[in-house]
Specification:
CATH class of the largest domain: Alpha Beta
Strand order of the largest sheet: 1-2-3-4-5-12-6-11-10-9-8-7
Shape: globular
CATH superfamily of the largest domain: Gcn5-related N-acetyltransferase (GNAT)
Distance between the termini: 19 Å
Number of domains: 2
Bound molecules: coenzyme A
Length: 343
């Protein structure tokens, strides 16, 4: 067994293909009933990293050159608006092939990540896992759950369309003068205001409010960068905003659809500025987005979204829409000092 630095753009085709198989195998473990992402998309994702992040990867090979484990460490670089807030933080992933778990391969990879983190001056790791094995592993090394979340899912065939139409009617009625606008790239004249609202409301979600896990920070430049980044990977990124009569943007919701994974839609962030809450805007935005999905993507199987289990306002809306828990999701935080004590 040996741990090797893995640089996707410099490796050979055989290792790249083994990595793709390994990735698909892991997707099957997490979501056994779903079609995994197609190999071409996985290849593109790993070969074309975001230029706003520094990323390091390692692979554990068996003597026969089979992949037994994989680790990744990344952090926002100077091009990212998150550079300052995340200066001492690195995001990590460790995956060990199922049959080779509990043999300390994960611990060996963690050692490598700690060495790299120390070299970079990082003090904290963040990671996301859907699996109990991941949660227990991180807890073993002194980590904590920064946000206890669920992946919630609503199957298209179960959507109550009449109810959604009613929500839209009620929304218009309750918030007189407010209108909904829909776009992919944010209009140039709105980008400053939109990215401000996005950052404010994102960081008010309970997942990030405690400060244990860093939420996103978006600027006009980073938004433009990611619009292009996701388009190149086959994604369509649709946003709806609510606009007050005086022109102010007060709320937003967004979804991602990928033509290479046409069975699903990812519902991402929904946010309404505090001053404008309590008028049914969140419900209206989400119902309006569903009608958009019906018109444009009627062949999907389901819509999935991630929520903190203590995000009562969002969960109340999602429950009424029919979303049900699909699986757990833990955002975890771990101090490097604590790992070193344990290693
Ligand atoms: C998390 C993961 C990488 C651990 O890899 P591993 O090689 O099995 O881990 P180790 O053998 O080094 O485990 C070290 C310690 O962590 C704890 N641990 C690991 N897996 C555990 C499990 N399933 N249940 C309880 N404790 C566990 C144990 O205390 C273990 O020591 P022990 O076996 O002597 O009791 C592996 O389970 C995995 O790939 N899970 C899916 C991906 C994931 O969720 N990754 C976490 C995000 S970074």
């Amino acid at each position: 067994m040996g741990i090797e630095l893995f640089i996707p753009n410099k490796t050979n085709e055989s290792i790249l293909n083994k990595y793709i198989d390994f990735n698909i195998e892991f997707q099957r473990e997490v979501n056994p009933d779903d079609p995994p992402a197609p190999p071409e998309l996985i290849r593109k994702a790993i070969l074309e990293d975001s230029s706003q992040e520094e990323i390091f990867r390692w692979i554990v090979f068996s003597e026969l050159k089979e992949i037994l484990g994989y680790a990744r460490l990344s952090y926002p670089n100077k091009k990212s608006p998150m550079f300052e807030t995340n200066k001492s933080i690195a995001d990590i992933t460790i995956i060990v092939t199922k049959e080779f778990r509990r043999k300390k391969i994960g611990s060996e990879l963690l050692k490598v990540l700690v060495d790299k983190a120390k070299e970079l001056g990082k003090k904290t790791f963040q990671t996301v896992t859907n699996l109990e094995s991941g949660r227990k592993f991180i807890e073993h090394f002194g980590g904590i759950i920064a946000a206890d979340r669920s992946r919630n899912r609503l199957y298209y065939r179960e959507i109550k369309w009449k109810e959604m139409e009613k929500w839209c009617e009620e929304g218009k009625e309750r918030a007189k003068g407010v209108r909904i606008e829909t776009f992919q790239d944010v209009p140039e004249e709105d980008i400053e205001e939109f990215t401000k609202i996005y950052t404010i409301t994102e960081n008010q979600a309970p997942d990030y409010e405690s400060g244990d896990y860093q939420g996103l920070k978006v600027t006009p430049e980073s938004r433009r960068y990611y619009e292009q980044f996701y388009t190149e990977k086959g994604y369509t990124w649709i946003t709806k905003i609510t606009r007050e009569e005086d022109g102010t943007i007060c709320g937003l919701t967004e979804i991602f659809y990928n033509k290479h994974m046409p069975h699903m839609i990812e519902q991402e962030m929904t946010g309404v500025l505090p001053k404008y809450r309590g008028r049914g805007l969140g419900k209206w935005l989400k119902a309006d987005m569903f009608l958009y999905i019906k018109e444009n993507y009627p062949k999907i199987d389901y819509i999935e979204t991630g929520n903190a289990n203590n995000n009562l306002p969002m969960l109340a809306i999602n429950k009424k829409m029919g979303y049900k828990k699909h699986m757990s999701e833990y955002l975890m935080k771990i101090e490097i000092k604590k790992i070193e004590e344990k290693l």
